[in-house]
Each structure stands twice: as C-alpha cells, then as structure tokens.
TrEMBL record:
Its EC number is 6.-.-.-. Residues 269-504 form the CoA carboxyltransferase C-terminal domain. It is an enzyme of class 6 (ligase). Residues 9-265 form the CoA carboxyltransferase N-terminal domain. This is Acyl-CoA carboxylase subunit beta. GO terms for molecular function: ligase activity. InterPro entries: AccD/PCCB, AcCoA_carboxyl_beta, ClpP/crotonase-like_dom_sf, COA_CT_C, COA_CT_N. It holds the Pfam family Carboxyl_trans.
C-alpha cells in the first residue's frame, strides 16, 4: 500500500472498531448488568434470538442525537437508544427495531424516532414483516414536542402499513402513555410476564385521580392484557420462549398482502380419516365439548397457534395448516358459555377474520352457536354494534371461506358466523346439525303458545309439539334441501373435504366495490 489506504492495523479501522464496540456495550458497562438483573436481555441479545444466526444487518448504528439543553449535549451515545436493521427468519427477510433500555431508558427522541421511521419505510418498500421489540420509557422529556412528533410519525406509518405487511409488537419492558398506541395499531402483540407492562396512565396517576391502588403489573401487565383487555394476543413466561414463538408466527404469515403464506411440509395425509370426531362431539346439543380437540383432529399433525386464548373464551381463533396450506379457523367453544357470541367474542373473531383476509389466509368456520348472549349489560354495552363488526368482517372478506356446522346454528348468530347468505363459498354440515331461528323448546313456546295453554296436559302437549317442530324444521337435511348447505357429510371425512375444497378455491378472485374504503361499525 502507498500509506494512504486502509490496512488491518490502520488508525481509521481501529477507530471504527472502537466506536462499534462502544455502541454495542453502551455508554455505561454496568447498564448491561442492570438489564440482566431485571431478568431482561439487551436489545442485541433479543435480535440475535429473533433472527437467523448471523443474518442481522444494522443501519444507522452510529446515529447520535443533536439535542441541547438539560445536559443532553454532553450525553450523545451512539445508536441513541434503538437498534434498527433487517435479517432473516427461516430464510425470509424481516425488519426489526429494538429499544435499548441501557441508553436513556429506551426513551424516544428525534434521532431515535427518525431511525424507526427509516426502518418502517424500508419494510414497507421491501414488502417484508416488521417486528418491534419494545422496552422504552416513552417520550424523551428533555426533547419536548419533538419527541411527541416522532411518535406521530410512527403511528402514521403503522396505519399506512396496516394490511400491507405483517406488523408484530413484542413487549419486553415498559410501554406507557402515547407509546402504547403503536403496538395497539399492529397486527399482533406479544407480552412477557413480570417484565412487560402497557398502560396509558400509570399507577401513580390512577391513584391521584381515582384513589385506586394498583401495581404496574396489576394495571398493565401481561395477564390483565391477555385475559381482561384483549390487548395482548400471546403471553409467555420468558423472553427466549416469546421470541421463538414470534418466529413461529412469522412462518405462518406471508411477507406482504400480495403473497400467500408459505406452505408446510404436507407430510400429514390429506385423506386421513378423523375417526375420533365421532366421539368428540356429543349428539346432545346441550352437552359441552372442547372445540380445540376438533381442531387438533383435522389440522396437519394436530398443530395450531391460538390467538388471544385467554380472552373471550366462547370463541376460539387459531392459525393452522390443512394439507400444508395456512388457514384461519374460527370456532365456537361449547365449553365456555355454550359457545355463545357476546361483545368480546364478536370483537375478537371480527379482528381475526379481518387480519386473515388482509394477508390472504383462507377462513374455516366451525359452527356450534346457540345465539348471541342475552342481557341488559350486553344490550347496553353495544352487542348490536359489536356483533355487526363480525358480520362486516365476514361480508367484507374476499379470501376462500368455508363454513362447517357441527351442531347448533341458531338465529342471527348462524347468519353472522359466515353463512352462505353472507358469502361463504361453501357450507357443509354434520348429521348432528340443527339450523333454526331458535332452539326447538323456545320455538314451540312461541309458535304453539295457544295450543299448549289450551291443552289438558300442557307439558305433554309441549313435548309433542317440540318433537313435531324438530321433525319438520330442524332435521339435519332441511337446509341442504333448500341449497343453504352444500352437503351433509360424514364427520370422519371432514379433513379430506376441507383440504380439497381449499385447493379448489385457492385461485379465488372476488370483485370488490369501487370505493375509498368501507365504513365498518368501529
């Protein structure tokens, strides 16, 4: 070399290595120890668990803020508290940003926000999923309104990318105030027990305003958001398990809304008979069973990935594969409130249907529903509006849609759960199906009220008329005779029929109205 170039031992390369090492360790070497003492990994350690080994490419790792005042000009660490870049998960490109709690507590300032904006724009342009690893103290107070504007830029990008690329938020620390709205705008939220919290106003503010005493975990921890608010879709006990499950979810999703989800191995025979189904679902419509057992029997290798499993338990929403093809399955859960649709169940299923439709995931609906939950609280809480969300989501969905009626299918709930009348491509039923305006007992009391009242033995007359109503209007073939069910099938043949039907519908094309967007009941 002529002395002007770079060599392995040149001062410039040595300086670069020093700066990169400083960015990796953070401004305070003890900060990593404190992070580990809290039971938390560092941002770099989390990224290493999420992405394929050696695949991460960092961008703007040397970015520093330019704010002044409050001593900020003397504290200008590299990375500015967020790590951004891309890598692969199972060989497929994924973009990621991870708050570094060791730097300013992961708080967001102008430079921090601009790094996130950059990686979000890249993800949208490249048509690849975006995963955010959240562990930050909110807006950087010293930067004032500039920090708030940074959040606005994140929210607008979340919204523009909604339904275009999968967006996954992983909560690995605190997320308070306006910062919580970005995860709420994304498709899926993961949380870790004991270390992650989300709330708009913290326990101190709650205490000051309402007098209520509550801990951070009690207010916005993983379990309250999984079982009470429905904000968290998945909850785990440790970060490593959580990030491994994020990888699994990504294996079920397409890169963007123009692609199909990746196929599975297809080693479970398509024509496998499901003998166990004959015993899993009791013929008596009043006896409960676990719809998850049905799902495990028909899906590839019995595997499925349930969404919001601890919230709104009367409906199960899960991702699985049938014949290697990813599907979204919505099923009433007779073990919980007889599988009834209430406010939360309607909202949960509507969101799931909408997400599947956005990312080209076919829908299979397993129907065993006695109706909508009656009650003053439900009516005043807006069951009409929330039930309409589910109705709208199904009617608006253009992906392949198959309805399978296992037992009860009563009233408006039957219509809402993807009936042929609202656009299901195919509707099948087991011989145990009961499709009707309401149950035979209730129907007889309405239709034959006078006959029962005038009878010498009202109880015997009621029993006779109930049997007559069932025989005439609720036999398994009534709907099939009128073309509202495509076929009544042997339950053992369910898997084969679903797979062949989905393959037939794989190239489905649905015309959509020429409009700016619909106006769903929010």
């Amino acid at each position: 070399m002529d002395g002007r170039g770079l060599s392995a031992g040149s001062g410039r390369l040595a300086e670069l290595r020093r700066i990169r090492q400083q960015a990796l360790t953070g401004p305070d070497p003890r900060a990593t120890e404190r992070q580990h003492a809290r039971g938390k990994l560092t941002a770099h350690e989390r990224i290493a668990l999420l992405l394929d080994e050696g695949s991460f490419t960092e961008i703007e790792g040397l970015r520093r803020h330019r704010a002044t005042g409050f001593g900020l000009e003397a504290k200008r660490p590299y990375s500015d508290g967020v790590i951004t870049g891309w890598g692969t998960v199972n060989g497929r490109t994924v973009f990621v940003y991870a708050h570094d709690f060791r730097v300013f507590g992961g708080a967001l300032g102008e430079a921090h926000a601009q790094k996130i904006h950059k990686v979000m724009d890249l993800a949208a342009s490249a048509g690849a999923p975006l995963v955010s690893l959240n562990d930050g103290a909110g807006a950087r107070i010293q930067e004032g309104v500039t920090a708030l504007a940074g959040y606005g830029g994140i929210f607008s990008r979340n919204t523009r990318s909604s339904g275009v690329i999968p967006q996954i938020s992983v909560m690995l620390g605190p997320c308070a105030g306006g910062a919580a709205y970005s995860p709420a705008l994304t498709d899926y939220v993961f949380m870790v027990r004991g270390t992650s919290q989300m709330f708009i106003t913290g326990p101190d503010v709650v205490r000051a305003v309402t007098g209520e005493e509550i801990s951070q975990d009690g207010l916005g921890g993983a379990d309250p958001h999984a079982s009470l608010s429905g904000v968290a879709h998945f909850v785990y006990d440790d970060e490593a398990t959580c990030l491994e499950e994020v990888r699994y979810l990504l294996s079920l999703l397409p890169q963007n809304n123009r692609e199909l989800p990746p196929p599975g191995d297809g080693t479970d025979p398509d024509d496998r008979l499901c003998e166990a189904l004959l015993d899993l679902v009791p013929e008596d419509p009043s006896r409960p069973y676990d719809i998850r057992r049905v799902i495990e029997e028909i899906t590839d290798h019995g595997e499925h990935f349930e969404v919001q499993s601890a919230w709104a338990g009367s409906v199960v929403c899960t991702l699985a594969r049938l014949g290697g093809q990813v599907v979204g399955i919505v099923g009433n859960q007779p073990q919980t409130q007889a599988g009834v649709l209430d406010i939360h169940a309607s909202e949960k299923a509507a969101r799931f249907v909408q997400t599947c439709d956005a990312f080209n995931i076919p829908l299979v609906t397993l129907l065993d529903v006695p109706g909508f939950l009656p009650g003053v609280d439900q009516e005043h809480g807006g069951i009409i509006r929330h039930g309409a969300k589910l109705l709208y989501a199904y009617c608006n969905a253009t992906v392949p849609r198959i309805q399978l009626i296992l037992r009860k299918a009563y009233g408006g709930a039957y219509i809402v759960m993807d009936s042929r009348s609202i656009g299901s491509d195919l509707s099948f039923a087991w011989p145990t199906n009961e499709i009707a305006v309401m149950g035979a007992e209730g129907a007889a009391n309405v239709v034959f009220r006078r006959e029962i009242a005038a009878a010498s033995d009202p109880d015997a007359e009621r029993a006779r008329l109930i049997a007559s109503y069932k025989e005439e209007l609720m036999h398994p073939y009534y709907a099939a005779e009128r073309g509202l069910v495509d076929d009544v099938i042997d339950p053992r043949d369910t898997r084969r029929l679903l797979i062949t039907s989905l393959r037939m519908l794989r190239a489905k094309h649905a015309e959509v109205p020429d409009r700016k967007h619909g106006n769903p009941p929010m």
